[in-house]
Amino acid sequence: MRALNEEQNRDFFLPGDQAPYSTAELAMFRQMTGYNLLQVGGGYVFVDDSGRPAVSSDRQMVEAAWEMFDLTKGIQAIETPGGEITIEGLKTLGETLRRHLGDDAGLYQHLIDMLTEMGKVTDHAIKNPDTLLGGDHAKERMSTNEPT
Question: Taking the model in full, what pTM does it have?
């Protein structure tokens, strides 16, 4: 499993392989759940970085995230072929599932809250790219080719 995870996350695909999820989408799933999403034998599995399956205490959350992810990808593929899953698209679908699946409403709300926080961090990074580099000092090092 670990080798499969490493291959997939490095964007290595043999001819004929299908890669329905982009590297960015796989990273988003990992950020949401803490688990990697792998396509294996026509199905999907969720594994940690060592190739172990989701622990039982995480399984319900990971499966709910997968349901949101899979349904959102299907909608996105129809509405904007070739596009990518967005945080807003996931949140919209999560809100629909929350309303219609009463027993798991709290679980979907938790995922929606996580996505909201992910969106805030992403928006902040887009508006303030210097924060990703460590501010002005990092920019100075880059411009003078000093080691970081």
Answer: 0.69
